[in-house]
Amino acid sequence: LQRANQGVQSLSPYQAGKPIEELERELGITNIIKLASNENPFGFPASAKKAIQDQLDNLTRYPDSNGFSLKQTIAKKFGLKPEQITLGNGSNDLVELFAHTFVSEGDEVIFSKYAFIVYPLITKAINATAREIPAKDWGHDLEAFIAAINDKTKLIYISNPNNPTGNFLTHAEIDNFLAKVRSDIIVVLDEAYTEFTAKEERVDSFGLLKKYPNLVVSRSLSKAYGLAGLRIGYAVANEEITGLLNRVRQPFNVNSLALAAAVAVLNDDAFVEKTAENNRKELKRYEAFCQKHGLKYIPSKGNFITIDFEKAAAPINDALLRKGVIVRPIAGYGMPNHLRISVGLPEENDRLFEALLEILGL
Ligand code: PMP
């Protein structure tokens, strides 16, 4: 342990959702469902599969380090300039890149309690000081964020919708917050789940970039776009910030298959709309299920719902696993009574409902 840097000594490894194959091996059964990692329940998009097949003969070459085609695609889709875009090996890579670019040892990074666990992980790994702000109704308390800002503050992470709670901040709340933050502090708006929020409710985050030069918006292609296994995300900021990120970014951080698949799926609106529509309907069924059976839950704008069992959730999780249903325990987030459940296809959700009713004796 002493070999690790001081910050690393205080860390615990990230706990990912249990892979289906692992539970298959453990239980010796095959009909397992995984509602644990907020993945796309429709599986890998056909448009991306075709793009990948077309790339297979090209894998001897390094990928396009600047991601020309993908940046063009993103820029065109959202009315941005390619020079505003940074590509990442998943948005996790970007979350880390922001800290490496803007934060030195001893600086302070602000984020919310119960926000995405990679924020404290990377902050501590670079020996910066984590200012974890107590949550308000499980979500971000932006007034407390403002109060926590001091001379050492360099970076603020906001996850919207927030993982693992699904809490959501409105455009006006984000706008008002940004107006109060010093412009030398970088604010990262992590929108990994934004496609699941109704269009009319979404934050116009790219619009806010025009007003706030210290804003960085981060997006993922792992969720609504269904490319989790390929690892790709993108960040949008002004050209100056993007230039700084590009100094630190590893030259070939995104592979050729991911680049090609991302272009295809960003042009595949039907796939994303089908995904969001299923999520909207099924999230309502989760809420109705919880209400009917007296289960507490946190209202969510993401593709998951977090249920409060008001008692230790670990035995419930174990019982679900024995029934071949993988969900996500979040005791590591300081939420030992909750389980986070990713919204699946209707038949997967039915199986989860049935299993929970049996386990809870409802
Ligand atoms: N941000 C948030 C809020 C997330 O929940 C996740 C996925 N767990 C990520 C970023 C990273 O996703 P990816 O690296 O797959 O893009």
Automatic annotation (TrEMBL):
Its EC number is 2.6.1.9. It is an enzyme of class 2 (transferase). It holds the Pfam family Aminotran_1_2. It comes from the Bacteria. Residues 31-356 form the Aminotransferase class I/classII large domain. Keywords: Amino-acid biosynthesis, Aminotransferase, Histidine biosynthesis, Pyridoxal phosphate, Transferase. The modification N6-(pyridoxal phosphate)lysine is found at residue 223. Its cofactor is pyridoxal 5'-phosphate. NCBIfam families: hisC (TIGR01141). This is Histidinol-phosphate aminotransferase. The gene is hisC.
